[in-house]
Amino acid sequence: MINDFKTQNLLCTTSQPLCVFASLREPKKSKSEAKNMTKSELQIITVTELTDYLKTILESIENIWLSGEISSINNHSMGLFFTLSDEENSAIINCTIWRSMLGKIKQLPQKGDRVLVLGSLTLFAKQGKYQIKVAQILPQGEGLQSLLYQQLKANLQAEGLFDPSRKRPLPSHPQTIAVVTSPTAAAWGDLQKTLNQRYPSLKVLLSPAIVQGDQAPESIVSAISRVIDDGRAEVLILARGGGATEDLSCFNDEKIVRAIASSPIPVITGIGHQRDESLADLAADYCAHTPTAAAEKVVPSLDQLCFEHKLRYQKLTEVCQRKLTREIDLLGSLKQRLINLPRTSMSLQEANFKTKLLREKLAAFNPNSVLKRGYGVVTFTDGSLVNSVENLQPDQELIINLQDGFVKVKIVK
Questions:
Q1: Exposure on the CB side of residue 246, measured as CA atoms within 13 A
Q2: Distance from the Cα of residue 133 to its chain's centroid
Q3: DSSP-assigned states of every residue in 191-208
Q4: Residue 342's domain spans which residues?
Q5: For 138, what's the count of Cα atoms within 13 Å in the CB-facing half-sphere?
Q6: For residue 52, is it within any domain?
Q7: pTM of the predicted model, to two decimals?
Q8: 155, 216, 236, 302: most buried, per Cβ within 10 A?
Q9: Lowest mean pLDDT among 2-16, 41-55, 288-302, 375-389
Q10: Residue 128 sits in the same domain as residue 219
Q11: What is the SS3 assignment for 157?
Q12: Do 332 and 193 belong together in one domain?
């Protein structure tokens, strides 16, 4: 991975190991002196010693960036083998991407490509050859800035700052938002116009910042901090209009990315044009790509709200009407069941028959029914019944109750 590598100065790396064999270097002798020297006086080393010495030096050099052109390439079962050369093949070096590393290469090379190769040197003693063991390849046109960008991006991604699970939902109807941008930029005017058209009652707080140049990162971070300290904004827009890649490069600064990632309120970025993407965009909770698009995302349109309200009202009316219709139908069904119940329920018919019999029996025992047949009920004046003649006396008054009234009588005999 690119984030595992650090650019090193090749000359500084090799200067120290070259001192290891300094004792082998003797003052240069003349030809006559050299002929007269004995074998024991000569400083002789073997091929293996020399090779080991060179191997120690070369393989101590790590993370070399080489630029060149792919002059030949061979895809082998063990890996990808290719030759990297300078212009007009003035110098070449063999390179290998082992099979285990192929999946980590950003873009596999093709013959004729001009590339930047990152790797380390390896020397094969038996062949007396050295080559580059490749760790990464990038198109040469991207340059050093792109390498640094890719390295920082990989580092931040490894920390999880771009993880989708970190993205927070935006408030649906914010009442107060903050904007971090330049107060003199066209982006600020576009934002104000769009926000006022879509949501006139919205309160907008401007936290001014420099959005281009070397001072921009510190200025933007300070502007974000002011918004957070103020505490009123429910969401923050970081915006800048379009421009050249160099103009937007400040939004790839690590400090800005970390300020966005640590913000306690959601952040929307509207930076540049649709085609532009910065590290700030990747860290934001929502990337709108342009200032106008950010304004359209942060608040709903008033016209849209009215339309949605009408739709909700219509839907609610339809639901209530369907509910009312169902209840009316149910009520009618219950009413009809009650009407049909005497005819449809056998138990109810039996109960009615028994009730009728009981009513007839009760009527038979009713005193009024007896009186209607011509009978009368004789009582003393105190209302007690006369059920025998044994206790009756002459001249004693009695009362005879008839169907339609009563009469007083006196016993004569």
A1: 2
A2: 40
A3: HHHHHHHH-TT-EEEEEE
A4: 304-355
A5: 19
A6: yes
A7: 0.49
A8: 236
A9: 2-16
A10: no
A11: helix
A12: no
DSSP lists the bridge partners of residue 120 as 133
| Torsion angle defined by CA atoms of residues 312, 317, 320 and 325, in that order, rounded to the nearest 10 degrees | -140
Residue 53 and residue 99 in one domain = yes
CA neighbor of 119 nearest in space, from 127, 352, 104: 104
Strands 114-124 and 203-208: unpaired
- Residue where a domain stops, chosen among 300, 319, 339: 300
- Our separate counts of H helices and E strands in the chain read 13, 13
Encoded tokens for 180: 């971090």
Take residue 176 and report the two structure tokens written for it: 């107060």
Q: Is residue 360 part of a domain?
A: no
Phi, psi of 155 (to 5 degrees): -60, -45
Joined together, the tokens standing for residue 105 give 């290469």
Please report, in angstroms and rounded to a whole number, the separation of the first and last CA atoms in the chain. 142
Whole-number Cα distances in Å, 307 to 122, 171, 209, 304, 317: 70, 20, 37, 5, 15
Tokens (6 digits) for 113: 């490509």
> Which among 90, 3, 300 is positioned nearest to 174, based on CA atoms?
300
Summarize pLDDT for 208-258 with one digit per residue, the tens.
999 998 899 999 999 999 999 999 999 999 999 887 777 888 999 999 999
Which residue reads 């995302």 in tokens? Answer: 297
In a domain, 166, yes or no: no
The 10s digit of each residue's pLDDT in 285-310 is 999 988 999 999 998 887 777 888 88
Helix (H) or strand (E) run with residue 282 in it: helix 279-283
Give the pLDDT band of residue 23 (cuts 50, 70, 90): very low
Contact 43, 26 (CB under 8 A): yes
Domain tally for the chain?
4
Buried b (16+ CB within 10 A) or exposed e, 160-174: ebbeeeeeeebeeeb
- Is residue 65 packed enough to be buried (19+ CB in 10 Å), middle (13-18) or exposed (0-12)? middle
CATH number at residue 116: 2.40.50.140
Q: Measure the CA–CA gap between 320 and 264, rounded to whole angstroms.
A: 42
182/206 Cα distance (integer angstroms)? 9
**Computed from CA positions of residues 230, 233, 235, 241, in that sequence, does the dihedral angle turn out positive or negative?**
negative
Beta carbons of 260 and 284 less than 8 angstroms apart: yes
Q: Residue 285 falls within a domain, yes or no?
A: yes
